């Protein structure tokens, strides 16, 4: 089983739609989780951090289910500018900052 | 305040050649990590440098080596290039002991091996 798994998509949705991505992780000891956004072949940028059950930032909501070992990202009222690849990231439970374990990424395409 | 800078932005090499990629961390950061991102995949951790030493290493062969200089900048070297080494190489900087989300990525070097 991969350490972090995501459905690669692509997800094609109309503007204004609500879309959700799921991510599963294998290490039950993991404590923190992140969603990164990556535009076409550019650097990943941190979108949200998830430390407890969830986190909300405007149209974006991340939820954590420790029992089932998955995290989700919900995007409400999708905008054209939300089109990107969303990477699920699970740092190892121990160790320092630099090593992150990325999922394959889920591609979102928002259409007019 | 400059962020993480990488050079070159694009590079074309042929099989068997050697390549060196460079990274300058964000001001105030002392740790540099390197990632390889193949097309359609997420970034894969190569290794991390702190205090001029390799501290952690991912599942990459010895053909991949690195160096960190006293000014915290870093180089990634890949010897005997293979077609499969074609990827976006990302450098990320952080401060040792800092929060895990305080990791900043450079815009990457796109390496094509022909």
Could you characterize the architecture of this molecule?
The complex is a heterodimer of chains A (112) and B (114). With 112 residues, chain A is mainly β. Helices cover 0% and strands 51% of the residues of chain A. In chain A, the strands form two sheets. In chain A, strands 2, 4, 5, 9, 10 and 11 form a six-stranded mixed sheet that branches. Chain A has a five-stranded antiparallel sheet with strand order 1-3-8-7-6, with no helix packed on it. In chain A, a hairpin with a 2-residue loop joins strand 6 and strand 7. In chain B, the strands form two sheets. In chain B, strands 2, 4, 5, 6, 9, 10 and 11 form a seven-stranded mixed sheet that branches. The radius of gyration of chain B is 13 Å and the shape is globular.
List keywords for this structure.
heterodimer, A: 112 residues, mainly beta, six-stranded mixed sheet, five-stranded antiparallel sheet, 11 strands, B: 114 residues, 0% helix
Q: Largest sheet of chain B, described in full?
A: 7 strands, mixed
- Rg for CA atoms of chain A: 13 Å
Average pLDDT rating of chain A: 91
The outline of chain A comes out as globular
